[in-house]
Amino acid sequence: MRTCAAAFVGRATARDRLPLDYSPASLRIVDSLVDGVRRGGAGGEGARGALLGLGAYVGEVLVRRAGAVWVDFDADQRAYFGQPVGVRMPDGRVWNPLGKVHNRLVAGAPEESLHTFYLTLHGRARRVRPSTGGHRGGGAGRAL
Q: Phi/psi class of residue 92: alpha, beta or left (left: φ > 0; alpha: ψ in -120 to 50)?
């Protein structure tokens, strides 16, 4: 996925000089790019490739800035997330940046912001508590 993200950044920055520098602030640009794909009809292989590149970029921001690592999902995780790969945060939570980009495309709502997604995840260590059957994570991620 790192290679996919780098290829996407190379194409995007060569064509439009977008400041995609793997910073958390650059995720605001990703929000705008996904919104542009949605306004453009979001159809065809070109859109699918752009969304993969954007998802890889979001994941790579988590890797470079929040200490995540890329992981191949097991069969249960693939079924849950609908993707073959994601990232594992230092606290053990697993997240699906490719799916999060898809959610932003479909919903187009501020609550699906990729920038906010990063801010929500970064640096949040999960406390170990006895299981009470509570919340297990959002639609884009799940603690395992």
A: left
**Considering all CA atoms of the chain, what is the largest pairwise distance in Å, rounded to the nearest integer?**
52
Q: What is the Cα–Cα distance from 56 to 101, expressed in whole angstroms?
A: 9
Q: What token pair was written down for 54?
A: 């954007």
pLDDT tens, residue order, the chain (144 aa): 999 898 888 888 887 788 899 999 999 999 999 988 888 776 656 678 888 999 999 999 999 999 999 999 999 999 999 999 999 999 999 999 999 998 998 887 888 899 999 998 865 544 444 433 333 333 444 444
Cα–Cα dist 101/82, whole Å: 13
Q: Show the 3-state SS of the chain.
A: CHHHHHHHHHHHHHHHCCCCCCCHHHHHHHHHHHHHHHHCCCCHHHHHHHHHHHHHHHHHHHHHHHCCEEEECCHHHHHHHCCCEEEECCCCEEECHHHHHHHHHHHCCHHHCHHHHHHHHCCCCCCCCCCCCCCCCCCCEEEC
* Domains of the chain, residue spans: 2-122
The whole-angstrom distance between residue 75's C-alpha and the CA centroid of its chain comes to 20
Residue with tokens 């988590």: 62
